[in-house]
Write a structure and sequence with these properties.
mainly alpha, 78% helix
Length: 91
């Protein structure tokens, strides 16, 4: 997950949408809280690098995941989800 920001910056939109977004969506429902809060960090990183068509993918796929992380039972997951949502402009 730590490499998501770097990959998002250097890969094209097709790879980003097909591989990274799918991976992050899956991670949002992982039973391990550290995986879920890293998913929130990844959403934040992907959002920073998205423009154009891929931005709609973020809106339709990643923001709903982030909304679920905002109500997670783990306080760390909530913290990182709120931080990501604030940066994205959704909170």
């Amino acid at each position: 997950m730590l490499c998501t920001a770097t990959l998002a910056e250097v890969t094209g939109p097709a790879f980003l949408e097909k591989h990274l977004v799918a991976m992050v969506v899956k991670m949002c429902s992982d039973p391990v809280p550290n995986v879920r809060f890293n998913a929130a960090k990844a959403i934040q990183a992907i959002h920073k690098t998205c423009t154009g068509l891929i931005a709609s993918c973020v809106e339709s796929s990643l923001l709903p995941c982030l909304s679920l992380l905002l109500i997670d039972e783990d306080p760390d997951v909530k913290f990182f989800a709120k931080r990501a949502m604030t940066e994205i402009g959704g909170a």
